[in-house]
Every structure is written in structure tokens, then in C-alpha cells.
Amino acid sequence: MSAPTTTGVRGGFRLEGVHKVYGTGEAAVHALRDINLEIPPGELVAVLGASGSGKTTLLNVIGGIESADSGSIEVAGVRISHRRPSSLGRFRRDHVGFVFQFFNLIPSLTAAENVAVMIELTGRGDRRDVPRLLDAVGLSDRAGHFPAQLSGGQQQRVSIARALATDPDLLLADEPTGALDVATGRTVLELLQDTSRAGRGVVMVTHNEVVSTIADRVVRTSDGRITSVTRNDSPADAAAIRW
Ligand SMILES: Nc1ncnc2c1ncn2[C@@H]1O[C@H](COP(=O)(O)OP(=O)(O)OP(=O)(O)O)[C@@H](O)[C@H]1O
Fold first, then answer.
1. Which long-range contacts (CB under 8 A, 24 or more apart) does 33-36 make?
2. 92 CA to centre of ligand 1 in angstroms
3. Rounded to two decimals, what is the model's pTM?
4. Residues with a CB atom less than 6 Å from ligand 1
5. Best residue for ligand 1 mutational test, from 21, 56, 102, 209 (most atoms within 8 Å of Cβ)
6. How does pLDDT run across 48-83, given as a tens digit for each residue?
7. What is the ipTM of this complex?
8. Is CATH 3.40.50.300 what the domain over 13-240 is classified as, yes or no?
9. What's the CA-to-centroid distance between 240 and ligand 1, angstroms?
């Protein structure tokens, strides 16, 4: 099983002095505090931290789903800070793919249609690539199945094929194995590792220390801050890890 290949190494990003606050006054939650982070293209990054430490918020400001309150954000060569999320649709369409914990597939569409609909909605990619995309995630024989007829791991693999259909520079995955058992989770992690080895940036949020060992770089968060960024010169092979 391997992710589609691509030319060039892509998907670097840089955040400087990024803050994000939810709510106001006594109800204010400082979800991100003075975030500084620079990641070169093509890396697999794990964001590791306790519940509520800001991992999802960090992923969402990188992906342009949420806007930061202050600071500078550049992703895949595009400066996205100071823009409202509503104006970031084109940036997301052209540069970013998303994978969620609970897959977010459309239940009334088959696996192939779930991938094709992304191509239709964004105008990026080519419908004729759908079989190749499903083959790359090992699901050629499930193209006509609906999500309810697929296992959790298979649904997550469809969602990765969907995310890659637009040929994004950067793949953002929020707890992609959180709803999966170890064996199926491992196949998903292999795909993420293959995706970065093929030259895309990948950022994966996880609670799990073992999962983070497959990353080129581990970013630890606590209480809205980055507490450490560690470069891993010999990442574990996703196919070999156990947790
Ligand atoms: N829309 C929102 N409105 C108010 N507070 C929010 C909102 N989204 C997140 N928060 C708060 O911001 C903080 C960071 O949340 P975030 O979801 O980024 O953390 P996380 O590390 O991803 O947590 P988890 O591992 O539980 O998903 C938390 O205190 C959370 O309660």
C-alpha cells in the first residue's frame, strides 16, 4: 500500500507569535499562546499533548479553518494570517487536505463517490483518478461500498483518499487513529508516513506517545503553549509500532 507519488517536496509552514482566544472576559480561554513554529516541507509532524492543550486549535489555524487573533502564519508559501476563515476557502482548496477522527464521510455516497465529490466541489483533481486514489489506500475492491458497509479503518482510508484527491501540499489529520484499534490504526499511520515520504507535509494530532514515534518532528503542547519541538532523526516505521 502506498500513497500517490508527487513531484517536489511541499507543505512547509511557519507560525510566529500566534495567539488564539475563545470567548471574552472571565470566560476567555487562551487556546494558543505565543506559538512560534517553523516546519520545513515534506515532514511528518506529530502534535502531542493532553486534552485541552490546544492541539486541534493549532491544526485548525494552520489549515485556515480558524483564524488566529494575532501573529503571522504562512503555509505552503501563502500568508494566511489576518484573513477571516470565510476568505480562506480558496487557500484550503488549493493547499490543504483534512482527515478527522470520525472520518466524516457522506453516508449516502459510496467510497468512490465520497472521493469524487471532493474533486467536484473543489474543482481540483480529476475524477478519472478516483480508482487510483482508492487503490493507493488499498480499497480498490470496496469502491462501490457505502461507509456503513466499511470497517472504521477502511472508512479512514477512504477519507485519506478523499483528502489526497485535491493533491494538497499539506495533509492535516486530527486524531486519525483515535477511533481505531491498533491493527487498523497502523495501516492509517502507514499511509500518513508514505504521504510525507512522497514529499507532502503531514501534521497529525495525537494523544499517543507511541504514535508520535513515527514522526520526523514531535511538537508538544501544554496549556496553549508549545513546550518542546524535537527532531527525530530515525522515526519508527509505522508498520512496526505497537501501542
Ligand atoms: N469553540 C470554542 N469555544 C470555546 N473554547 C474552545 C473552543 N474550542 C476549543 N476551546 C478551548 O480551547 C482549549 C484548546 O482546545 P483544543 O480543542 O485545541 O485542545 P486539544 O488539545 O485538541 O484537546 P483534545 O485532545 O481534548 O481534543 C480548550 O480549553 C478548549 O476547551
1. 33/223, 33/224, 33/225, 34/71, 34/225, 35/71, 35/225, 35/226, 36/226
2. 21
3. 0.94
4. 22-23, 29, 31, 49, 51-57
5. 56
6. 999 999 999 999 999 999 999 999 999 999 999 988
7. 0.97
8. yes
9. 32
